[in-house]
Amino acid sequence: MAVLGKIRALGPVALISVIGLALFAFVFSTGSGTVTDVFKADEFNQSRVAIVNGIEMNRTEFMQKVENLEKQNRGTRSSIQAMNSIWTSELRKLVLQSEYAKIGIQIEREMMRDFLKTNLLAFEDFQNENGEFDESKLNQFISNLKEISPETIELQGSLVNYQSWNNFEENIGTIGLEEMYYKLIDAGMNTALFEGEQDYFNSNDVVDFKYVKIPFSKIPDTDIKVSKSEVNNYINDNRNNYSSEPSRDLIFVEFEEKPSDLDVYEAKLNLNDLLEDKVEFDSNTQKNITYFGFKNTKNNEEFLNTNSAIKFFDSYVFKSSLSQSVAENIYNLKKGEVYGPYSENGFTKVTKLIDSKFIPDSAKVRHILIPYLGAFRSGPEVTKTKDAAKKTADSIYNVLKRTRSKFKSLLSLSSDEVSNENNGEIEFAYIDGYAPEFRDFCFENKSGSLKVVETDFGFHIIEILSQGKKQKAVKVGNLAVKIEPSERTRDSVYNVASKFEIAVKVDNFREYSKENGIKVNPVNNIGELDENIPILGQQRSIVRWAYEDGTSEGDIKRFSLKNGGYVIAMLTSINDNGMMSYEKSSITALPKVKNQKKADKIIQSINSLNLDEIASQNNVDVQTSLSVNLNNPVISGIGNEPSVVGYAMGMAKDITSSAIIGNTGVFYIYVTDRRKASSLENYQNMINIISSTRSSNIRSSAYNALKDKAEIEDFRGNFY
Question: Which of 371, 409, 526, 607 is a good FRET partner for 564, with 20 to 30 A between their CA atoms?
Fold first, then answer.
């Protein structure tokens, strides 16, 4: 602001000169180009979300689709979740689009019409009098949409405009192209005869063998020395197992804005103030006026709705519905008595017993529902006014009052299709959340009672068939004050967080935290488009900071939390090289290297090729494995050991093998028997199984292969 003030003080002429000099320097700098070039480049970079095999993914269109999906999901998905969903579909579209161009497949007009026809056959709007698809009606519909754009037309219960119809057609075309593409691939995926034959023998050729297993655990870890370079060599030799997307690691501490003991105390004082009566002098009447507190008020509903953080709930509840910690105390109160104060779910509360009575815990009833125009969940077929619906309901009531046996015959008049399937009967518990008017009649009257009851759904003619066991239920009022951190507490948390932030920029983050009893939380492998941080939840701002160009390892920043409080984070690792860090890779690589060295030691200690002698030297038993095959290389009691089983299948009988390094130890085996399966006249059954498996996996396998091969430039991190 000081600099801005100085520039203003120069006056308009000088100001123009300053701006001119800046532009001059910009244009004639040794950079990449002119001002225009820079602006164009920036505009270009901002106009696309990605480039896939040279095809741009338009930012505006992409974001519009994300916004539409968010609206459709009505807040059930976050912006990042909606974006990732759209990204998956749009990426798939562009990856496959590249392939369509290579092999020359496209959707012709007639094919598009066929696709549309297939998807719209069941739409009554596009059918003639015979129930057949009428293309002229479809054409007229599209023409009308275009003419009234951007207005909407209702179609099958949904509102459609010209833009959304175009999106629909685009999706249909995309699906059609995919079908054509995958059919071409599927047609070329024939299973050869020898594959079926091989699969048959891999499953049915079996071998029996004796074996000795010397587990890696026989050699203590302390006897094995592994250098960092040895682990690195293993990682480099197995790079595919340790590849990684760009990621970030960080550590953080959290300073929560929790109510202090003083805040809790003050909340209780506020509660007590509302609990007791107040006497105030009225200067107009020159008299003292008593204002009743919660204890003595006669109008509990008005008092609670005016003064309590928890509004009045005008209903009875059973003991099981009360909080377990206080249920007994509240349940045994006398009418008008209070219990508390007590703390629960962030509130300090006092509960008053307003009333109690014995009511059934369940009821079985049958009903006929007559809705009216505008009633809750009334369909478009409902045209009766409220008065007309009431007259119909009263007429049905009068009939049933005289003859209950006619109930079933009158169900055709009821709009409750669910209960109609059960003769209009419903069985429910008091706490099941039915409309209050409906519930109260069913539980507060005797079995056999019949009445017309109005709810938001319309008019119900209800007959009580039976009721469950009566139990004591209570109606309570909860006077509650929310326990929140005061401004004093929030200021204190801010000061502590600020002090910490300043200190760790000088001292070691972890050591300072440990010295001051502050828990450090590590977070590893954060992706560029992640939004959730463990413990903290949605914290997109932290993730964006970790990936900003100006953020380096060791950088520290404070973030405000949505619900109050602060996080101080430090970026500890940047991984953009396509490989996991040594620390992460070594978690699995180090044991592999250790096991190899243990195997070498075990093998060097063996000086016999007799199973019994090997077993005796190593304090293990000779064991037997029966009927093992290549398609299921599992040794009973040990698990998957493909190297051992593969070796056994290729060995001659009555010979002890050399050392075999398996998954769990070093093996020596001795084949006792092998049984080759008889040949079949044909192997069509196996061929069919292989073909079916391939066909079911072909779409995902083909697409994943194309995606892995594709050149993808992803710019989403610039916008989300």
Answer: 526
Return the SS3 of 358: strand
Alpha carbon distance 20, 505 (integer Å): 40
Residues in the chain: 720
Sequence letter at residue 410: L
Could you give the 3-state DSSP secondary structure of residue 160? strand
Question: For residue 657, which phi and psi values (nearest 5 degrees)?
Answer: -75, 165
Non-local CB neighbours of 366 within 8 Å, separated by 6+ positions: 407, 419, 423, 424, 425, 426, 462, 463, 465
Asked whether residue 83 is assigned to any structural domain, the reply reads: no
CA torsion 487-492-493-495 (nearest 10°) is 120
Whether residues 268 and 353 fall in one domain: yes
Calpha distance 235→241 (Å, rounded): 8
Task: Report the 10 Å Cβ neighbour count for 654.
Answer: 9
Decide which of 409, 436, 468 is a domain's last residue.
Answer: 468
Q: How far apart are CA 107 and CA 111, in angstroms?
A: 6
**Residue 413 belongs to a domain with what CATH number?**
3.10.50.40
Residues 6+ apart with CB under 8 A from 54: 98, 711
Check if the beta carbon of residue 528 is closer than 8 Å to that of residue 547: yes
Please tell me whether residues 399 and 336 are part of one structural domain.
no
The owner of tokens 């050591």 is 511
Q: How many CB atoms lie within 10 A of CB 333?
A: 17
Residue 548 DSSP code: S
Six-digit token pair at 206?
A: 């079996």
Same domain, 369 and 446: yes
CB atoms < 10 A from the CB of 295, how many? Answer: 15
More confident residue, 544 or 185: 544
Same domain? 490 vs 459: no
Structural domain span for residue 634: 206-243+583-675
429 & 517 share domain: no
State both tokens at 175: 């699906």
CB burial of 420-441 (b: ≥16 within 10 Å; e: otherwise) equals beeebebebebbeebeeebbbb
pLDDT one-digit tens code per residue, 255-289: 999 999 999 999 999 999 999 988 888 788 888 88
Question: Is 386 found in the same domain as 315?
Answer: no
Which helix (DSSP H) or strand (DSSP E) does residue 443 occupy?
Answer: helix 436-444
| The 3-state secondary structure of 204-242, one letter per residue | HCEEEEEEEEEEHHHCCHHHCCCCHHHHHHHHHHCHHHH
Q: Rounded to whole angstroms, how far apart are CA atoms 277 and 296?
A: 7
Query: Is 273 inside any structural domain?
Result: yes
Torsion of CA 461, 466, 472, 476, to 10 degrees: -20
Q: Is residue 709 in a domain?
A: no
Amino acid at 353: L
pLDDT the model gives residue 21: 30
344 token code pair: 């629960």
- pLDDT tens track for 471-529: 999 999 999 999 999 999 999 999 999 999 999 988 899 999 999 999 999 998 898 88
Q: Per-residue pLDDT for 30 more than 70?
A: no
Number of Cβ within a 10 Å radius of residue 231: 18
Phi, psi of 637 (to 5 degrees): 85, -10
Residue 100 is assigned to a structural domain of this protein:
no
Q: How far apart are CA 66 and CA 70, in angstroms?
A: 6
In this structure, the answer to whether residues 375 and 311 fall within a common structural domain is no
Domain boundary among 358, 388, 413: 358
Instruction: Judge if 233 and 253 occupy the same domain.
Output: no
CATH label of the domain that carries residue 612: 3.10.50
Beta bridge partners of 708: none
